[in-house]
Amino acid sequence: MQGFVHSIESMGLVDGPGTRTIFFLQGCPLRCAFCHNPDALKKAGGRIMTPEAIVEFAGRYRSYYGEEGGITFSGGEPLLQGKFVYRSLKLLKREGYNTCVDTSGFGDPRYYQKIMPLVDTLILDVKAFDREAFRELTTIDGFQAYLDFLAKLDLYGFKGQIWVRHVMVPGLTDSEESMEQFIRLLEPIRAKVDRIEILPYHTSGVSKYRELGIPYRLEGVEPMDKERAKELEIYANKLFAAGLREERAQNGKAREEKYRQLKAKEIASDAEKAEMFQVLRGLPLLSDVPEEDVSHVLSEVILSSIKAGELVFKTGDAPDFMYLIYKGQMKIFVNTMDGEEQIFYIYRDGDFVGGLNLLVETPYRYIGQALTDCKVVAIPKATFDKYFYNSPAVLRSVLSKSFERIRWAEELIQRLATSNASMKTAGLLLKLVKRLGVETEEGIRLELSMSREELGNYSGLRRETITRKLGEFRELGYIELVGNRVIIVKDLEALESYVY
Ligand code: SF4
């Protein structure tokens, strides 16, 4: 494995936090009018290095990096040499280096998911703020691809901070209106942005173009006035801060509203609350709460009565609460693009949801709705952080629940993708047997809180199909239907033979 390195700066101070060694890599698909390194645009060329050589080189300067500093990959466009950057970052991270990548977002997307979790600081070069200006400046119609790159950073697993940079060219983006466009562009990554810098355009790279005999597209454009660039940088930062404040205020309001809604449904009796909590303490999730903390926890959690059909949380809700079901059943689902409801899980007594959201601080991606009247314990994030965050029992429970959900989701995908209607129906019944089945003399009794339509949504079938299939299974003697809400499984083996 080898990479092409245009040049190395052993101890730089501006390309990422602290003192850093910067590897400028060859290759870039853009052709920015102001590019200072036209000789670095070809992917091949420069010095050939292996990832091991990068680590060895970094080692020579390690004692200068201090707490903040480390290694930066810049360019060119470093993400173009995705495999090389990935391998190098992996080795560097193994050695404990702080890492930074300076990118315009036009690399090799096959490696984004591997690279991004290994990056501590991403320096994002924002070339222009609309499609036309982007094309004019870079010669590439890539503005939408750039926006997609920004929007997917979370999905690629990037957890670090972002420094945003923009080279300001007089007559192109040196206006307050442009700064407003600029800040709007950053909305999808707002929570991660740590600084916004405006770099005034200068003409010191022009001589390189002359030497290489390449026409310079900004011929005649004066360097950007540094004071004006600073003024606009301050303006952009103020706008950004105002946006953050507004978002925080909105989140705060949403949190208060959620709290108010849950409180409005709170179970009034202290005795009932105490009894519920004692039962819940038998669960692995709460078993670690020390006796002396129980009354504090009890005073902070909200024990609510939720009526069948009411929403407990919805897509996009901030990770402010996790929910533990004391009694009843809740369905977790999403609305698909074609307007169907896809149910993922049915949760019941003792199950919880949202633990992982609180741990990794990501919003809810699905909807939780009570299928029956439920009693639900809402645990606020602050309580979770104070009493549960460091508990091995809680972490174990959250992990095993997450694993269970992954398996469940895998089975669901398999069921939806590969099964025919008989297999899907049998698979669904077997799932329900596992979750709700009660052994009786007549067979395994399933008391359902779901309508036929919801059963269909759970299994990827239409209501008519699931009704027809259940009818067929009844005729075959596999099940008995008692009204609309009870199924008695008479022949488990027969159902299993469809699935396994
Ligand atoms: S992205 Fe950077 S390296 Fe690529 S053309 Fe633009 S300025 Fe040059």
Question: What is the compact description of this entry?
Answer:
This protein is α+β, with helices and mostly antiparallel strands and 500 residues long. It has 17 helices and 20 strands.
Describe it.
By secondary structure, this protein is an alpha+beta fold. The protein folds into 3 domains: 3-253, Aldolase class I (TIM Barrel), CATH 3.20.20; 265-404, Sandwich (Jelly Rolls), CATH 2.60.120.10; 419-499, Winged helix-like DNA-binding domain superfamily/Winged helix DNA-binding domain (Arc Repressor Mutant, subunit A), CATH 1.10.10. Helices cover 42% and strands 21% of the residues. It contains 17 helices and 20 strands. It has helices spanning 51-65, 82-94, 112-115, 131-138, 143-151, 176-185, 206-212, 226-264, 270-280, 294-300, 355-360, 381-388, 392-418, 421-436, 452-459, 463-475, 492-499, and strands at 3-12, 20-25, 47-49, 70-75, 98-103, 121-125, 161-168, 193-200, 302-306, 311-313, 321-327, 330-335, 341-347, 352-353, 367-370, 374-380, 438-439, 444-447, 479-482, 486-489. The strands form 4 sheets. The protein has an 8-stranded mixed beta sheet. Helix 14 crosses helix 17 and helix 15 packs across helix 16 (463-475). The radius of gyration is 29 Å and the shape is elongated. The protein starts with a strand and ends with a helix. Residues 28, 30-32, 35, 37, 75-77, 104 line the site of iron/sulfur cluster (SF4). Iron/sulfur cluster (SF4) is lined by residues 28, 30-32, 35, 37, 75-77, 104.
